Amino acid sequence: MIGKNTGEEPERIASTSSMETRPNSIEDWPSRAWNLLSKLRDQSPLVQCITNFVSMDLMANTLLSAGASPAMIHSIEEIPDFTPHARSLCINVGTLSSDWLPAMKAAVVLANKFGKPWVLDPVAAGASGFRLNACLELVGMKPTVIRGNGSEIIALFKASLGASKGVDSSHESTDAMEAAKSLAQASGAIVAVSGAVDIITDGNRVVGAHNGVPMMQKITATGCAVTALIAAFVAVDPLHALEATASAFSIFGIAGELGMNMAKGPASLRMHLIDSLYSLDQVALLSHTKITSL
């Protein structure tokens, strides 16, 4: 699926005082999150996603409902023409194959060349040698953000073939905090760990996003969808990737909370989550955002 904005446009960095000042207290985070969501809706950044077959639909609909323009372009023949026009790139290795890996790396090379932020989702990183080595290669190509569950982040940090439960996590995000900090310091990326509390770190600072509901774990590809949303948020504020990542987590979680009020189960929650993200307003966001320093 190709989004509605395919023209190349220069990077635009916010200059308002609320965007220039890093939040030091919980009161600052809701305003920053709203400012970022407003920018996203105004700019509708083109986000290229090279992702897995399972997640394409939810990722595209998440980006559209938030206000971004998704493009599911993965053919290596199209990368040279298309990637330079995207505002950001999302790489997800969920259904990794030897045919897709060269396209992923080619897109990353161009994203780096043109100064575009890119986000890596190392799905089931420790499940096989091929998958782990591919993820380690991609980490070495300097992603802006790495987003995974606890098991995936620990596998990347240890760079060894540990026991893995498919794409599910056998570790809580808090179990992976030290691994995330070390991985962030080694890679230069913001590292984000999904869990009951989503953890985001640059290797020194650590913040937690406390939004969301447990039933979101019963919907396949919600982790992939939040990674795509992170890519959209860093597209509109690439100089503050930690804040953009934390805001994306919180906003996606808030949409889940609001959707849960109308849902009867995972299938209806999926629908209402997308609707809630689309209709999220300033009052709801300011009253629900829960991001804290850890």
UniProtKB/TrEMBL annotation:
InterPro entries: Hyethyz_kinase, Ribokinase-like
SUPFAM superfamilies the record matches: Ribokinase-like
Region (Disordered) location: 1-25
Keyword entries, A-Z: ATP-binding, Kinase, Magnesium, Metal-binding, Nucleotide-binding, Thiamine biosynthesis, Transferase
This protein's pathway: Cofactor biosynthesis; thiamine diphosphate biosynthesis; 4-methyl-5-(2-phosphoethyl)-thiazole from 5-(2-hydroxyethyl)-4-methylthiazole: step 1/1
Annotated catalysed reactions: 5-(2-hydroxyethyl)-4-methylthiazole + ATP = 4-methyl-5-(2-phosphooxyethyl)-thiazole + ADP + H(+)
Compositionally biased tracts (Basic and acidic residues): 1-12
Required co-factors: Mg(2+)
Compositionally biased residues, Polar residues: 14-24
Enzyme class, broadest EC rank: transferase
Its EC number(s): 2.7.1.50
Listed name of the protein: hydroxyethylthiazole kinase
The organism of origin for this protein: Hevea brasiliensis
